[in-house]
Amino acid sequence: MIPESSDLWFLPLGGTGEIGMNLNLYGHDGAWLMVDCGVTFPKPGRVAADGTVHHRGEPPVQMADPAFIADRRDRLAGLIITHAHEDHVGAVPYLWPLLQCPVYASRFTAEILRRKLAEFDLLHRVPIIEVETGQCKQIGPFSVQWLALTHSIPDPNALMIRTPLGNIFHSGDWKLDDQPLVGHGYSKETFTGLSEEGVQAMVCDSTNATVPGHSISEAALHAGLLSAVSGAEGRVVVTCFGSNIARLHTLATIARESGRYMGLLGRSLINMSGAAKKAGLWDTADQLINPAHLGYLPRREVLAVVTGSQGEPRTALRRLAAGNHPDFELEVGDTVIFSARAIPGNEEAIEALIANLNGLGVRVITAEDADLPIHASGHPAQEELALMYQWVRPAVAIPVHGEAEHMEVHADIARAQGVPRAMVGRNGDLFMIRPVPGIRRQIAETGRLGWEKEALVRVE
């Protein structure tokens, strides 16, 4: 299947009809452009009494099967990574040997990617082209411009993909945060300008399409987190997504204000903070101490930020709850703050983890029971989606990055804003944008691959 010069296609192989393992293809004039290449993780299986999660034998890391484009890699012009979250970049080290194309990314995203590739001895094989926000690149028959948006990680980018047949706006993951704290902000004029140029299709994030209102700004969390930390008597442990550098900055400020020393526990947190420093995104005023020193400080002076907000096995918080972390042990009167919400499917594992913490006599504060906001989503709620459609005014809306319910609600929002047509599909469907909009169902075979014993295996 080869797109002709009269064709403009969108073909998702992962991330449409589900949240995770994003892998998108655009086809035009004999070539394909890939946007994002991410992983997902199997939903937790049975949770044992000790909090251990049994995954029913599935590989712990899974990704979209790229067979369709791997079989056509001579026509793959390039791969663009919109931002550095695992569900957008995590599969590159596993799948790049099947693709062997140039990879385009912003500075922070490229830094995270290099660290991943180094673990697979691929660092010097993969051509990485760093791009700046606002920059345009010609990638095969596609002219691509990187546009500034905000999300829960530094340097996220939307894409304007231009072709002679029409333009496509690919949102990536985003929200409208007027005070993102770290990295670039966004400009309304960027998107109203796109509408003046003309946008044939808008391919857009649906994660929070069922959530009314407007997402909370990162800047709005300071008061709630400061209150929770200042009111604690013993050690304070905060668990959050390691990629949220803005949250780490907020917590570092709170550590100074509350007279505590802050240290990071968990590989992903340490890796992300290191990448932020190298990319120039870490405030030099935010000092971290060696986590090995946390156990020697008075309890009232400790603020530890840890991995494990989703109850994942082998993470720092899981080890603290089990009493086997090498740096310190939790005691009666310590406080654990969940500055994150449960990803659907992880609720049982998180509940088991909280039960273990309660059993230790530890006070637990979650985003649901905090008096003030202590977590902000990185995805647009309904008001933000409506605003973006008012600004961009595409001819066609294509909801992605969501389950069926999210995408159907998203389509209704688009129609309510005057979008003439919304096309809702799933992985493997071919969305024909030109010459005539429409969907051909299940054109490409899709599925999952897993990484097991240093090899890719098919996941049934």
From TrEMBL:
UniProt GO molecular function: exonuclease activity; metal ion binding; RNA binding
Q: Which CDD domains match?
A: RNaseJ_MBL-fold (cd07714)
Q: Report which superkingdom the organism of origin falls in.
A: Bacteria
Q: Which UniProt keywords apply?
A: Exonuclease, Hydrolase, Metal-binding, Nuclease, RNA-binding, Zinc
Any Pfam family = Lactamase_B
Name the InterPro entries for this protein. Metallo-B-lactamas, RibonucZ/Hydroxyglut_hydro, RMMBL, RNase_J_2, RNase_J_b_CASP
Keyword Cell membrane on entry: no
Ranges for domain Metallo-beta-lactamase: 20-214
Is Cytoplasm one of the keywords UniProt gives this record?
Answer: no
Report the PANTHER family cross-referenced here. RIBONUCLEASE J
What name goes with this protein? mRNA degradation ribonuclease J1/J2
